């Protein structure tokens, strides 16, 4: 396939579209044409556009590369596998973890690049979505050429590339969210939501494997790690990489509740902040990635605290407490968060889980518009002067997100929380009692034996 304008022998139409001649490549059996916009070259099919990378040279590998990677199935992992893998950490295990990430990242990226390529041209040419595409493409190109990792030095260099990618990709969520909202009229909302879900889930999956490997490398390099001595490998360690083996539901709720309460105390004039009562199986523990759980619980409590404060703003009586019930079953831990904040407004209820539709789209776009202007990443959106404590092993991408100002409502708390909950085979449901309050049910798969729920081929093809 040609990928430079000079190879395209078409005629330029008045709209800047270069019509392809019969000799030009055919994609999926259809005649294609090209359009150049903002320095990017697109191949346009009747309903689709493929962005070609602007910096390609003749000597570059052919784009079949992408197909080869897309054909590779991804190899999902479970929390249990992540744990066992890192428990007795030896040099060969660390190297093999590095090589897993080295081949898995470009595979997962290639799948997502293909998803974006399959969007209609008008959607894919949105500046926010094409920025995400460019970031993914760059990362794909970078990772696919990394040779096999054979030594600890190789691994150190690989970790530097990983860290750089994680940092560079912090802008992905606000850009995706803005792009999806801006294109809401151009693409069926349900498909747009499915696309967003797929991309977010895949993004979590890449960060999980990358951050886990970085955490394992840190553990390996720490002065307390003695890889050659079985006796001294700590079999009771609470963290294995990013996985926290003894996640305690009550502690997480209390910690996240305090963050939500403090935030509201700082940013609202309301003197009355609802208390949070926790009851049920208070000792329930399970393996989980702590930052994921704290994000979900944090978003739910934040919504509840906010709703109760708004409802009881003018009342002299103390606001009713938020009741949290923890229920442990052989397979699951279920948390029910009940508030009396008046329930979810009827007009937004049908759009609760959507990234792309609903009556508040315009406000959300405006709020999202403040994100790149303020800091370029959602992660840096903090209430000024507030010090956030990193909760995970690394300065994660979620902890400071939780401390963004409460009036900056992006409409993403619930849909993102559900993506996180489902990622480790859990679920998130909400029941709204109109005029009274909300019950949120978060179900966590307790045994850690479920694979990460990364999109399957069927779902990719459906996008
Ligand atoms: N517990 C609740 N009580 C009342 N309304 C709620 C509750 N939880 C959510 N809502 C309503 O649902 C809307 C969507 O919630 P969601 O958390 O997805 O986004 P947001 O809170 O508006 O913005 P963000 O979470 O991105 O800051 C909220 O704006 C609010 O109107
Ligand atoms: Mg919210």
UniProtKB/TrEMBL annotation:
It is found in: Mitochondrion matrix. Its EC number is 2.7.11.-. GO terms for cellular component: mitochondrial matrix. It comes from the Eukaryota. Pfam families: BCDHK_Adom3 (PF10436), HATPase_c (PF02518). Residues 292-437 form the Histidine kinase/HSP90-like ATPase domain. One of its GO terms (molecular function) is pyruvate dehydrogenase (acetyl-transferring) kinase activity. Belongs to the PDK/BCKDK protein kinase family. This is Protein-serine/threonine kinase. The lineage of its organism: Eukaryota, Fungi, Dikarya, Ascomycota, Pezizomycotina.
């Amino acid at each position: 396939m040609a990928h430079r304008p000079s190879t395209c022998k078409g005629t330029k139409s008045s709209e800047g579209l270069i019509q392809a001649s019969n000799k030009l490549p055919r994609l999926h059996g259809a005649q294609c044409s090209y359009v150049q916009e903002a320095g990017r070259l697109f191949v346009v099919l009747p309903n689709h556009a493929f962005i070609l990378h602007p910096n390609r040279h003749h000597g570059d590998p052919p784009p079949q590369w992408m197909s080869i990677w897309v054909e590779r199935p991804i190899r999902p992992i479970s929390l249990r596998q992540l744990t066992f893998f890192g428990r007795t950490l030896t040099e060969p295990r660390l190297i093999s973890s590095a090589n897993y990430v080295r081949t898995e990242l470009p595979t997962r990226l290639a799948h997502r690049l293909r998803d974006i390529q399959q969007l209609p041209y008008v959607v894919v040419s949105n500046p926010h979505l094409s920025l995400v595409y460019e970031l993914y493409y760059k990362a794909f190109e970078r990772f696919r050429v990394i040779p096999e990792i054979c030594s600890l030095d190789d691994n150190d260099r690989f970790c530097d590339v990983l860290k750089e990618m994680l940092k560079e990709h912090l802008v992905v969520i606000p850009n995706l969210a803005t792009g999806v909202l801006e294109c809401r009229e151009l693409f069926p909302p349900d498909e747009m939501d499915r696309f967003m879900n797929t991309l977010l889930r895949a993004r979590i999956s890449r960060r999980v494997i990358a951050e886990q490997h970085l955490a394992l490398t840190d553990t390996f390099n720490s002065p307390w790690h003695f890889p050659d001595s079985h006796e001294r490998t700590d079999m009771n360690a609470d963290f294995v990489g990013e996985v926290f083996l003894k996640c305690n539901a009550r502690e997480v709720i209390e910690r996240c509740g305090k963050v939500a309460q403090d935030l509201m105390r700082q940013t609202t004039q309301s003197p009355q902040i609802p208390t949070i009562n926790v009851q049920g199986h208070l000792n329930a523990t399970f393996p989980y990635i702590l930052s994921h759980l704290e994000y979900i619980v944090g978003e739910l409590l934040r919504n509840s605290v906010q709703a109760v404060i708004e409802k009881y703003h003018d009342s002299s009586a103390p606001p009713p407490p938020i009741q949290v019930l923890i229920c442990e079953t052989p397979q699951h831990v279920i948390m029910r968060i009940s508030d009396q904040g008046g329930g979810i407004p009827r007009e937004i209820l049908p759009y609760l889980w959507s990234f792309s539709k609903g009556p508040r789209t315009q406000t959300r776009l405006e709020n999202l518009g403040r994100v790149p202007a303020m800091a370029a990443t959602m992660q840096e959106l903090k209430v000024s002067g507030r010090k956030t404590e990193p909760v995970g092993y690394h300065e994660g991408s979620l902890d400071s997100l939780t401390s963004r100002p409460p009036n900056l409502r992006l409409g993403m708390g619930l849909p993102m929380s559900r993506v996180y909950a489902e990622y480790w085979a859990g679920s998130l449901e909400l029941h709204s009692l109109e005029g009274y309050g909300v019950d949120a049910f978060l179900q966590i798969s307790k045994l850690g034996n479920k694979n990460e729920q990364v999109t399957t081929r069927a779902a990719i093809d459906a996008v």
